[in-house]
């Protein structure tokens, strides 16, 4: 998995906005360019970066090449949620142990 | 009850968990530095090195954490926006990795549930792109820290 390419692709706010739009479904370059003030060629370059990073897929439909989110594009979210869950669960298990002590035990260091 | 984390909208995460103690004690464990230090260390191998809490409206807190083995450290700072002891708290939080993350508004509810407490934490960022960035940053730090930052951050440990 090209991690560096993924991070570089996600580091740009326009590319993250494009991914957010694609999370709602397939879109053409024209549709993706619509909310932005930058030119369509600039959008196309962003799309190329996302495609090279494996975050989006394109198919051919006549003269159009609509984009959609690659299934693995959501992996960073899953990975991050797993990390967050693991860190919080470690904390909360210690908190369970703390709360299991008698209330006046809270002064114990 | 198990910890549940759900992305409830493009800009929010909602976290719930049950604790076997009444809200007053769970609240105390979240606001008294002497108690916070006993549980808020994150992963095993990490220690909490700073726990400063000024619990009043507009007051601030600062937590800092250190991974003993690598010397990697990061901090969380925040400002209290709503304090309704022992049922509801809102704070605005920034993580320092060391680069600061965008602001995260965290509402924590402490609701009585049976003889215990149900915590419901809702984390809200300003827009979907910020949530994506937070996720990308968390992933970068989580995965690359052990490799890329190890050498430079040894200084922090000394």
Describe this structure in words.
The complex is a heterodimer of chains A (109) and B (158). Chain A is mainly α and 109 residues long. Helices cover 57% and strands 6% of the residues of chain A. Chain A is built from five helices and two strands; from the N terminus they run H-H-H-H-E-E-H. A two-stranded antiparallel ribbon of chain A has the order 1-2. In chain A, helix 1 packs antiparallel against helix 4. The termini of chain A are far apart. With 158 residues, chain B is an alpha+beta fold. The longest helix of chain B has 30 residues, at 128-157. Chain B is globular. At the A-B interface, helix 1, helix 2 and helix 5 of A face strand 2, helix 1, helix 2 and helix 3 of B.
Biggest sheet descriptor of chain A: 2 strands, antiparallel
Strand order of the largest sheet of chain A: 1-2
Q: Please tell me what the overall shape of chain B is.
A: globular
Radius of gyration of chain B: 16 Å
What is this structure's SSE topology?
The complex is a heterodimer of chains A (109) and B (158).
Chain A: H1 3-10, H2 13-22, H3 29-33, H4 40-52, E1 56-58, E2 67-69, H5 75-100
Antiparallel strand pairs in A: 1-2
Helix pairs in contact in A: 1-4
Chain B: E1 4-9, E2 12-19, H1 23-31, H2 33-39, E3 46-53, E4 60-67, E5 73-84, E6 88-96, E7 104-113, E8 116-124, H3 128-157
Antiparallel strand pairs in B: 1-2, 2-8, 3-4, 4-5, 5-6, 6-7, 7-8
Helix pairs in contact in B: 1-2
């Amino acid at each position: 998995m090209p991690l560096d390419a993924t991070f570089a692709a996600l580091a740009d706010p326009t590319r993250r906005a494009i991914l957010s739009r694609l999370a709602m479904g397939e879109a053409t370059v024209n549709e993706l360019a619509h909310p932005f003030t930058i030119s369509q060629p600039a959008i196309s370059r962003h799309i190329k970066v996302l495609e090279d990073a494996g975050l989006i897929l394109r198919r051919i439909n006549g003269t159009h090449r609509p984009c959609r989110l690659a299934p693995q594009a959501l992996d960073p979210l899953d990975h991050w949620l797993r990390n967050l869950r693991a860190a919080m669960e470690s904390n909360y298990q210690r908190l369970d142990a703390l709360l299991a002590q008698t209330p006046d035990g809270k002064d114990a260091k | 009850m198990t910890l549940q984390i759900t992305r409830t909208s493009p800009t929010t995460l909602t976290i719930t968990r049950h604790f076997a103690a009444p809200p007053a004690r769970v609240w105390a464990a979240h606001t008294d530095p002497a108690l916070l230090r006993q549980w808020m260390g994150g992963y095993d191998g990490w220690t909490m090195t700073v726990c400063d809490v000024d619990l009043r409206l507009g007051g601030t807190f600062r937590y800092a954490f250190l991974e003993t083995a690598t010397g990697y450290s990061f901090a969380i700072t925040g400002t209290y926006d709503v304090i309704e002891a022992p049922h509801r708290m809102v704070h605005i939080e920034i993580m320092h990795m060391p680069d600061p993350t965008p602001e995260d508004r965290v509402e924590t509810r402490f609701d009585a549930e049976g003889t215990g407490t149900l915590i419901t934490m809702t984390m809200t960022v300003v827009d979907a792109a910020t949530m994506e960035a937070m996720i990308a940053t968390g992933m970068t730090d989580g995965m690359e820290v052990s490799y890329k930052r190890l050498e430079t951050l040894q200084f922090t440990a000394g």
